[in-house]
Design goal:
This is DUF115 domain-containing protein. By secondary structure, the chain is an alpha/beta fold.
């Protein structure tokens, strides 16, 4: 009954002005499974429970990370995201997994993405890579990431249409994400981690009015269509709040899945706006 009511309210909201925009966005982002998608997803089944009972750190790229001694992550299982290979001390802790969500093309052209992926491959060490299936053809066409394990997620429907609290099965199409840490959380839970610590997941642009990173971008510098060169947003508060609401619903869904499956997700980001998970200081993880 609750699921049916949720679906009615979701589609009813499409009648509102912003709902029309959201409906167009969903239709545009629908992805039909190809034979290659099916094969790629089947390969993800071998990852189920691979790290059962262990802990991992998901390292975001927010500026709060600049105040952390990331060398303490040496020996830990770390999942980095997007440009995370540019973090200071990356060479000391070297992430086990690296995630890149679906890419929005605009200022970022396919040629830019090829250069970015080449930069990524050069710096990632032996990290296994997770990409969106939308970039699979580009990787094949340009023979990118030679010698590296590359896996794909098919990012399809919305968390709003997924009432289940079962762990998201990455060998099947999964919900699209508005921020890459959500993708990393889905992967971490599927891998079997029982304790997942978030770092640098700030999500406070709507409070700070600027978007910053913990490092200086290289290939991707100036390619974000949502911000100006000085980091100020190009979008209106209305659109920022709509995006933030979608993102918080995704984190709420992740929190519910974690709770239902005995998984502890802890936010050890210094500051930041994300309030869906319990908090614990970064340093506390290394106290004897």
């Amino acid at each position: 009954m609750a699921a049916a009511l949720r679906k009615i309210l979701t589609f009813g909201s499409m009648l509102l002005p912003y709902g029309v925009h959201e409906l167009k966005r969903r239709l545009k982002n629908r992805h039909k499974l190809t034979a290659d998608d099916v094969r790629s997803l089947a390969e993800n089944r071998q990852l189920a429970g691979l790290h059962a009972g262990q802990r991992c750190f998901i390292l975001g790229n927010g500026p709060s990370v600049k105040g952390l001694d990331l060398s303490r992550l040496q020996g830990e299982t770390v999942i980095t995201v997007s440009n995370g290979y540019l973090h200071s001390d990356f060479d000391k802790f070297r992430s086990r997994y690296h995630c890149v969500p679906q890419i929005t093309y605009g200022l970022m052209t396919p040629e830019d993405v090829v250069r970015w992926f080449e930069e990524m491959h050069l710096h990632l060490g032996s990290s296994e890579l997770f990409l969106s299936s939308t970039e699979a053809e580009l990787v094949r066409k340009h023979n990118l990431f030679s010698g590296r394990t590359v896996r794909y997620l098919v990012l399809g429907e919305s968390f709003d249409e997924r009432p289940s609290v079962e762990i998201v099965d990455i060998s099947q199409p999964v919900p699209r994400v508005d921020s890459v840490p959500v993708m990393a959380l889905m992967i971490a839970m599927y891998l079997g981690f029982k304790e997942i610590i978030l770092l640098g997941v700030d999500h406070d642009r709507f409070l700070s009015t600027t978007y910053e990173y913990a490092f200086e971008l290289k290939v991707q510098k100036g390619k974000d269509i949502t911000v100006n060169a000085d980091g100020t947003p190009r979008t209106s508060r209305h659109d920022d709040f709509q995006q933030a609401a979608r993102l918080w619903r995704q984190y709420r869904a992740i929190a519910n899945i974690a709770k239902a499956n005995g998984i502890r997700v802890v936010n050890s980001t210094p500051g930041g706006a994300l309030d869906e998970f319990e908090r614990r200081p970064f340093e506390a993880w290394f106290e004897k």
